Amino acid sequence: MKYKKLPLSFQQQVNLLKNRGLSIPDEPRAIQYLSNISYYRLSAYALPFQCTKDVFNKGTSFDDILNLYLFDRELRLLFFNAIERIEVGLRAQIIYQLAHKYGSHWQDDSNVFCAPYSVLNKPSGQYFTVNYYQELQDTIKKTTRDKYPETFIKHYIDNYTSPDNPPSWMCMEVLTLGQLSKLFKALRDNKDRQNIADYYGLHHRVLQSWLHTLTYVRNICGHHGRLWNREVAIEPLWLKKAKLPWLSNHYQYATNRIFYVMCMIKYLLQTINPSHHLLRHFVDLINKHPNVPIAYMGIPSEGGSSTKLLNWQEENLWH
Asked: pTM score, two decimals?
């Protein structure tokens, strides 16, 4: 099937929405938003207001869609801020635990990391080698050779001749959350991973899974993707044996929905920043946009034939 749709002017976009039953009392205002958000991006937030495709439910207004978009935007900022705290805290723990065991330059010791291994690329049918130690070294070397390196990297290069690389507490500062997640996974000794995971009250396999998911969600936030009703492609493990306040087992939490990711964040913040205000900020956001269907985030219902949402704030995790 050949794609034949033509681009529409902003006025034509407004007319199309009105023809589909959307109430737009202030057309110039709608055009202003469409010219700065785009029809395609905003259309993703129109779906909950359509029982029939391309036909808006009776009484739906442009503001209903816009408020949902603004809710999602603020939700991304809330997640982004919280994940930043987790990233900074994880970096600190990795540095502390490994530097005290292996020394200041543990990142330069290949024995700290898993040996290289081969992975099959199914589309091509060819194998490629995964060598995290070399990948880490390449990242560090690139940083030290930058024309405008970080101030602390430049200070090391200008003042020290050996070892070639700066100490771990400098090198780790240039790694992204995704790179830290891969580093954690690549540690050879399970005890190293568990020592880090113990700080958060988790098994190392759970922490590894959660870090992978949080990297994925952080990238969604960083690229301004839709978060509110996102199905999480990198599904995290369910925490079975929690050492800190957590969720009850008699409710069906969907681990591939964004609300479960928020619960993960809350669990980690109990250690990283106990005085955080994630709950207050999220409740304020819901109150600011009371008509947003938050069930799409994956908040479970009370069970059985009931569609009433669980009073999630009563869970031990949120106390």
From this structure: 0.92
